[in-house]
Amino acid sequence: MAEPVIQVEGVEKRFVVRVKRGLLRRERREVAAVDGIGFEIERGTIVGYLGPNGAGKSTTVKMLTGILVPSGGRIRVAGLDPSRRRVELARRIGVVFGQRSQLWWDLPLRDSFDLLRHIYRVPAARHRENLDRFTDVLALAPFLDTPVRQLSLGQRMRGELTAALLHDPEIVFLDEPTIGLDVVAKAAVRDFLGEVNRERGVTVLLTTHDLADIERLCSRLLIIDHGHLIWDGGLDELRRQHGPERTLVVDLEEAAPPLELPGARVVKVEGPRQWLAFRRDETSAAELIAAVAAQARLLDVAIEETEIEEIVRRIYAAGVAPRAT
Amino acid sequence: MAELGRIYLRLIGARARSQLEYRASLALQIVGSALLTLLDFVMILVLFENVPELDGWSVQEVALLYGIAGISFALTDLIVGHLDLFPQMIRDGTFDQILVRPLPSLLQVIASDFSLRRIGKVLQGVAVLTVALAAADIDWTLGRAVMVPLAIVSGVLIYTGVWIALATIAFWIVDAIEFVNAFTYGGNFLSAYPITIFGRWLRNLVLFVIPIAFVAYFPALYILDRPDELGLPDGLRYASPFVAVLTVLVARVVWENAVRHYRSAGG
User: Fold this and answer.
1) What is the three-class DSSP state of B98?
2) Residue A170 near residue A190, CB atoms below 8 Å
3) Contact (CB, 8 A) for A211 and A311
4) Which residues contact A24 (CB under 8 A, 6 or more apart)?
5) What's residue A320's pLDDT?
């Protein structure tokens, strides 16, 4: 096992909230947003960090990047205690918060990059080299001189990724980097991250709701819920254990009784539309579609993967928190 | 330090450049704010229409107080006035972004804006001070001449320190801006008058808690060679630069501690 670049041991973050009790009285109550989590991440890996909204994902990322001070436990990122050596750490990491911008709204993209060069003290030659490379890979050239406020979401996200990587960080933290992007832009972002990881050995910690991001990029998943780590392992393993079923949605030409097919069961019928659940390890989608087409006239099909929220729900329903290592 | 100074200039330079894109509107705003601030001074003139002097201070002498305090405050407003918007930076997560950059957070917050339109107030203060210095009966020495710019610089540091320390309230209570304004803008108002006219508790406030008595009152005692009617130690009239440095250091400690209590927005 290579050297861990992120180490988290028994980390907690508690917030004090005030709860109303009666007309004037308010009671202080502590809420644990992160409640004793631990993991290590090896250099050069891409790890997906998942969980429902409010599970403690962002709080964890904010502690790892030095924004929030943990209430307990120990964190080391690139060997540093993030909140105590925030400035030093900031030089060695890149951060993209999907819904916020690190760029200067009124300035052309190029000027933002130039300011960042000075903030991070990147030598001019190295900056040029990196910017040329990213301009090429992310096709930034058409809007490098456009003020950031005029960029589309997809263009801006490409700018944000460049901004986060121009200073050659060892680790990048990405919070929902593909949220709100169209299919083409999502693919561009994923390709880019994969390439940066391969070519530069950058470690990536990615929070996302998009299963495709994970499928395409992550060799390992961490799932958090209610402040606890409930999964640490690969995606395929997770699917096998907790989300083995996919759903094929078929639109028939006319309403029909529930279809009877080997390897699948009908879970819902709505007029001419039927939902067929099937196990990915037993039946292929192609076989199933062929079988449906043999029985009825088929207008359209769609495949629904099990949503992360659903998988999390199932892990909880199973009772224990399974840990693959 | 020099490195931080350079990056500060670069950051506010970027802000200033984007404001200069709309020159005509900027010019109007500057003239507008100069005129509006002039009304403050007209208030003082109206006051002296009715009384010949204020606790022994002539209109020229009060104008001197007003000029020093006014320039200091206007320059502070130019440099850190956008701390008014700091609660907004906490609410919308901009402060998170600041914390992941390799620069001191306070420097970045201060460098996040530079409102050129506020130059109007500086110009108004300079005009009033120039007239006051010419009209007042001053026995010029080198020390007194040096004290004028020194008082302004000290005033900027004192106001800046107070402003920063008060802005940290936002780390606990996001909507405290009116409370903070009472001290910042209110402090500016108070420092334009001789502190002898205030009651005991207000006097103690501006002497010891929010040390704005050191912005204009004590330097003016020295420049005008006036006795201190409160019987406070004589040395205080030279103390403004020291109080200024102390205020800024205290503000920095308050800020650094407050940042460690930062809770960030959202989950």
Assistant:
1) helix
2) no
3) no
4) none
5) 47
Low-confidence spans in chain A with pLDDT less than 70: 1-2, 243-244, 307-309, 316-325
Q: Are B99 and B105 in contact (CB under 8 A)?
A: yes
pLDDT at A180: 81
Q: In which region does residue B54 sit, left (phi positive, over 0), alpha (psi from -120 to 50) or beta (all else)? A: beta
CA dihedral A271, A273, A274, A279 (to 10 degrees): -170
d(CA B164, CA B82): 11
The residue of A85, A86, A149 whose CB has the most chain B CBs within 10 angstroms, and thus the best one to mutate to test that interface, is: A86
Of B14, B96, B104, the CB nearest to A111: B14
Cβ neighbours, 10 Å, residue A123 = 9
Contacts 24+ apart (CB under 8 A), B202-211: B203/B230, B207/B232, B210/B162, B210/B183, B211/B158, B211/B162, B211/B243, B211/B247
In the structure encoding, which two tokens stand for residue B166, read together? 């008060």
pTM of the model as a whole: 0.83
Strand partners, A7: A40, A76
ipTM over 0.85: no
The answer, for B40 touching chain A at a CB cutoff of 8 Å, is: no
Identify the burial level of A241 via C-beta atoms within 10 angstroms of its C-beta, where 0-12 means exposed, 13-18 middle and 19 or more buried: middle
**Which residues, 6+ apart, have CB-to-CB distance to A237 below 8 Å?**
A324
- Asked if A220 contacts A48 with a C-beta cutoff of 8 angstroms, the reply is yes
CB-based contact B96 A102, cutoff 8 Å? no
Contact between chains at B96 and A87 (C-beta distance less than 8 A): no
Cα of first residue to Cα of last residue in chain A, in angstroms, is 12
